[in-house]
């Protein structure tokens, strides 16, 4: 990955046919944290989530009533877990789900375990973090037809290292005929990523937004997005 100035924060796939389809109700959970209480503040995480939510609503016809945004102080450990738990309890196979996380990540170098960092977590309080294993557990358990996790944080690639979530090089033909779980991460498991210049989007979010805007359909083709980003 090329270096970018500023703060820090796969895979060939061109013909996967997994779509977030209009025939199912699409839901969105966006988590964006700039105003960290005990970690360095970020500049663009909240903007990234708002911009992604905006284009999903405007171009891909996501219903605002089915979009949950947890921004800054709302993105506590409790708030994030409650949102995931609510989706596990309420969504069905008649729904699709996109989750977008933009914020700090942490990697325990001894264990190789990765974490999301909620807004109020402290550097010396790993119990306040959200392990990738917990995130993946919810992704697997939420009964939506398609679930697509996008994680823009340092060490986000550890989502793949720690278990069986399908990465993009494991694509199969005609995926839309059955339920699926996908993840797109901004960096490798041991890689820091960049927040971008203040007031702009992160480089990762810029790529996603560019591809979403260039699409000529209102169906979100997960495989094509992953391949192009």
Q: Could you walk me through the main structural features you see in this protein, from its secondary elements to its overall organization?
A:
- With about 230 residues, this protein is α/β, with parallel strands linked by helices.
- It has a single domain, classed as Rossmann fold, CATH 3.40.50.
- Helices cover about 25% and strands about 20% of the residues.
- It has 6 helices and 10 strands; from the N terminus they run E-E-H-E-H-E-E-E-E-H-E-H-E-H-E-H.
- The chain has a 5-stranded parallel sheet, sandwiched between helices.
- A hairpin with a 6-residue loop joins strand 5 and strand 6.
- Helix 1 packs parallel to helix 5.
- The chain is globular.
The first-level CATH class is given as Alpha Beta
Kindly provide the radius of gyration, computed on alpha-carbon positions and rounded to a whole number of angstroms: 16 Å
Distance between the termini: 12 Å
* Morphology call: globular
The percentage of residues in β strands lies in 15-25%
Instruction: Name the CATH architecture.
Output: 3-Layer(aba) Sandwich
| Main beta sheet strand tally, sense and closure | 5 strands, parallel
Return the structural class.
Answer: alpha/beta
pLDDT under 50 segments (min length 5)? 1-6, 8-18, 160-175, 188-193
